[in-house]
Predict the structure.
Amino acid sequence: MKTFVLMAGGTGGHLFPAMALAQELTRRGHAVELMTDHRVESYGADFPARQIHIVPAATPSGGNPIKLVSAGLTILRGIAAAHGKLRKLRPDAVVGFGGYPTFPPFIAANVLGIPGILHEQNAVMGRANRALARFADMLAMSFPTTKFADQHGLDKVVTGNPVRDRVRNLIGTPYPAPDDKGPIRLVITGGSQGARALSEIVPEAIALLPPPMRSRLQIVHQARSEDVERVTDCYRRARVSVEIASFIADLPERIAQAHLVICRAGASTIAELAVLGRPAILIPLPGSLDADQKYNARFLEEGGGGWVAEQATLSPQSLATRLHDLLTDPPLLQQAAEAARSLGQPHAVEKLADLAEALAGKHSQIKEGPRS
């Protein structure tokens, strides 16, 4: 049995692939611990780790000198705290999943001589991973081409982005091709950061569809809690069947049942759409660092699995036109579903676990030394 410490920022985009790897390593009989920040309470309360360690972390950005000094001191405290924990745990390897909470423990692991893999979920290498690249043994990538990945001289392996067991259990579910008279199932989700704009644009677009089409719609809409009442009222006036909630625990199952998904283009969303083979209208989060969601979305669109709609030029009218064109063309939706599935990496978590085990094995041999 080996011991692995996974390190991730406390949002779903970082925690979900870390959770998938933890599940796989646990299945293989290994011990797994997690180092992250306090946001894990919202996104990873059921994380399958032996123990979850909250490590001080901060984002060293902005031009305010006082804030920069404060962030630097917090990072140093995080490195010291992680160093003490890692000395006790003595892991065989660490795996970092990005986000600034990864920075202090990954640095501490490097100081202690513990080998580490960085996993990049997006089509653009994140800033924390770029800063940590010089301290890593390997970079595992989710996309065949990852912007900034070639600048660091790291060994690179395309593993794909691991998806949770809840999603893996649905792989192979046939696409429910719509017919001319039956229900049309839509799923709308904005992820952790971008639900508000979708809650403003999508219901108004739905209201502009012809009444016969609206009567066939069965919508699942994940909205922020403060938007639920307004969104509900808009759908009610449009006389559309809808289920609205701020959190939908069985969202993967709903996506597997959907004819079309309208969503942001976060890394986990793209990975789940691809392995499940579901077509999507992708609305990248504007203003995100390095436009990572835009590059993620382009990958799915260029592969034929979805359609990118930039928020800056998107209106209820233009979205309604796009929806009408797609929902009246079942063969096109079926084709996009098959294209999305062809882009999926259903064995990403096994590939990443294999890399982690191989790196841990090498480290164990070094620690034990040659056998006489």
In short: The longest strand covers residues 31-36. The longest helix spans residues 65-89.
